[in-house]
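Re: that chain you flagged

S.,

Sorry for the slow reply, it's been a week of failed gels. I finally had a moment to sit down with the sequence you sent. For the record, here it is as I used it:
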Amino acid sequence: MSDALVTCDVTERIAVLTLNRPGALNALSDAVLAALKDRLTAIAGDDTVKVVVIRGAGKVFCAGHDLKEMQAGRAAADGGAAYFADLFTRCGAVMQLIPRMPQPVIAQVHGIATAAGCQLVAACDMAVAAEDARFGVNGVNIGLFCSTPMVALSRNVPRKQAFEMLTTGEFIPAARAREIGLVNRIASPNRLEAETMALAQTVAGKLGVAVRIGKRAFHEQALMPLDQAYDYTRDVMVENMLERDTNEGITAFIEKRKPDWA
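Prediction finished late last night. Pasting the structure tokens below so you have them in one place:
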């Protein structure tokens, strides 16, 4: 594997991003966050990529922020206040970039996903986890409430379940993560990559413009009151219907043939 902190491999229109800092449990250092942002930004502008998978090298998916790097920030005259604010702003920007990307993003989780690592899973559109994977927002165990990870987590799972995870600092197994909606699918460890890629390939096989339109609308309407959401998605449906390949897809279905998509 490349020495890059986040590697990128594209196969059959699926981009696989690998957090590549296994010796530090793929902690989200300043450099890793910058590399991940650069990779995601580049892919967002690449129309040839239809799905993105994020995974971790080594034993775990991601162990959260780099605590040693954070502690070093305390050496500043302000005790680290400016550095901490900048760090959490940069991390938040990466987490917000994921739902704004035109391509669906799938987390492939093994080992542990903890604190900002769990936040990264929650920020992705979908997640597939190994049966023995564990998830936690356990900053409270060392005196740091996971307030920024809480944002993505509480938008994925029921409030009481999120609050329990945040206040107890306990890990939950993959099966429980699926029950509460943090994970879509679980697989045996030796099938994790295959199951993740099967999901990615299914999505990549759909009409790209429809998925891009739909992902944008999915996240936008979730922030709106009910009546506004229906008005907005009405216009989105019109936009989608007017696409050349949507017309072809419907016509092909009626005529019982495969669509001739550009």
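What I noticed first: The first strand starts at residue 6 and ends at 11.

Talk soon,
D.
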